[in-house]
Amino acid sequence: MDNGQVGIVDAVKDGLNRFADFSGVSTRSQYWYFVLAGSLASIIASIVINDAAGNLVSLATLIPTLAAAVRRMHDVGKSGWFLLIPIYGFILAITPSKPQIR
Hints:
- The chain is mostly helical.
- The protein contains five helices and no strands.
- Helix 2 (28-48) packs antiparallel against helix 3 (51-60) and helix 2 (28-48) runs antiparallel to helix 4.
- The radius of gyration is 14 Å and the shape is globular.
- The mean pLDDT is 88.
């Protein structure tokens, strides 16, 4: 895709490959696709297996999701610590990316 958007498969691969990388940036589409995929995986595991499996999937994706969220904050020009302010963190997560100076 030409405007910085990635597909859901690429976003999940990137999120899992950089599961503990709290530096760099993640675009808005990378972050939200990764959150969507993790949520769907947890819901499906809960329905198909049991609630404990859904909780296990959620726990397994906790660190990668936090890392993606911190990278998303960096993409809008803010520190990852802004995630601790719930409403403002959500507003930043839906904010368009800042242009990168190269």
